[in-house]
Amino acid sequence: MMRRDTSRARGARRRGAALALAAAALLTFGLSGAPARAGTVGGGSVNAAFADAAHAYGVPQQVLESVCYLEGRLSAHSGQPSIDNGYGCMNLVKNDKTDTLDQAAKLTGLSVSALQHDTAANIRGGAAVLRAAALTLAPKLPATLAGWYGPIAAYSHASSRSVAGMYADAAFQLIQTGFSGTADDGSQVTLAPQAVMPDKSKLDSVPLAPAALPAGCTQDSNVDYPSAVDCVVPTTYDCNTVSGACTYQSSNRPTSFALYDVTIHDIEGTAADAISTFQDINSGVSVHYVVDSDGTVYQTLREKDIAYHAGNFWYNEHAVGIEHAGIDATGYQWYNATEYLASAKLTAYLLNKYNIPLDHAHINSHGTTPSPTVGTSPNHVDPGKYWLWDYYFGLIHSLGVAYPTGNTPAAGLFRVDPSSDQAPDGPNGTETTANNSFFTLYTGPSTKDAVIPGAPGTDPTDETTNVETQMPYYSLASQPDQAGTGMTMYEIWYGENDQLGNSTPSYSADAKKAWLAVPAGSAVPVHSYVVSLKPSTAGATIGVYGRPTTDASDIIGTAPTGSLWAAPKSVFEDGTKNLWFGIDYNHREAWVPSSEVTVIDWY
């Protein structure tokens, strides 16, 4: 979500868009006793369906299994269509850009209903579409498994060749490493590892399905990121040169301001919504890139310029912002494999270009970005609990970006790395509500204890009582959950928003000890400094800042002497030699000056 915070005006604009949900359909394997549908191929196991489809259409069974696993983890997931209106584990789609659902019906003679509702039919339809894709690239089907790289890339329905290639890479990685999973009918599907090197010679011939360009956008080479569509706003939107409405500040980053971060947002709507907003000079907001659910990347501002996107002007100066199609409260219905792949490729490019580390301290979210002052709190919460950080970082790493290395991680340092954050669990590369990257804090070492004080109500996007995965924290103690859930409780210092229940509520935070509930085995070592806080003046209160600037108005909370924190990054205050440490204060990052810090361990 976009937010403006500048020296000229500090304010916020939040936009929303209604999400029209597709009607859910029940996908089955032909349940015992259920009447047969016309045109279905029910009966038999999913393994038999793969074998039959492979034989009928000449598509290797390994290809069908890998695509079904990549798109839907072998599951129909209660019939919910994907964000691009795709059905079944083979993601047969029908939207304004692609229609493989009707294509499959024509090629197989099966009804559309069968392809949507019957998994065996869906696999057969996917095989027919893959065969057709192969025959558009060559007069004969590929003679080897390696030759199916091009048809799989075409099957992705991607709008750019780079994303199509990433899709095929992901499918072949599954073939190379093998996998085992359980289908909806209880069948165990096992693909043994295959020593195969994909033949990528047909990738340049893969037909693309480009989306219609929004007004004000062109497909040219006048962009920073080579795969982006040019939607860069005109210089008349520059706040440095106009006195009226404007949306950004021209600059010459990283010369004018060092680039430390990439900030991940969701739009609270569609890519078209975002582009329309950024092209409105009266909106007061901007961002550098927009990523659509089909993998299209739009550039709306030069990387060198300062966008108004983070709700904290210091972060605006030092970050590249990326908006994603989606709504934070229902991110599981939006964030899909194609969007993640396209965004990962863009972020990998930015990390390499600006030498930014691959970790959550430097690839932050709008939700981990602090407000600069108590008066402007709270900042936004996107992309929310359904953005899968471990999965996302793994995609970036697979593109050749190394994880940070250093000394053996200090004892007590950990990050949450749960199975719910590893990969989309839903159909067609989408997520379910089981995907989750937020974890709750309690007042004692039991999940039966009270949740720590926070914002009133039950807003699922609230960030006052939880943490995101991948952010480092320092554990003072740990023990099994006394409630017997099998989770492990970790005691940490946490900046609690305990003043929100006052008669005059305030977002000023107070650091207290709290217990974080983590799924068993999900706390893993992480590289970070460990710092102990001390006042520079005896008896003084230690202020925690919303940005690394020496300004008392930027104090957003306090912490006691001797409290211990993970500090995954440090910077010099702009124009000075004052060193600041970024600490993971609560759900969000915050800052303390080095004059009030003792480094007790590192990496």
UniProtKB/TrEMBL annotation:
Keywords for this protein: Cell wall biogenesis/degradation, Hydrolase, Signal
Keyword Signal recorded: yes
Reaction it catalyzes: Hydrolyzes the link between N-acetylmuramoyl residues and L-amino acid residues in certain cell-wall glycopeptides
Entry EC no(s): 3.5.1.28
First-level EC class: hydrolase
Signal peptide (residue range): 1-38
Protein name, as recorded: N-acetylmuramoyl-L-alanine amidase
Species per Swiss-Prot/TrEMBL record: Catenulispora pinistramenti
Lineage: Bacteria, Bacillati, Actinomycetota, Actinomycetes, Catenulisporales
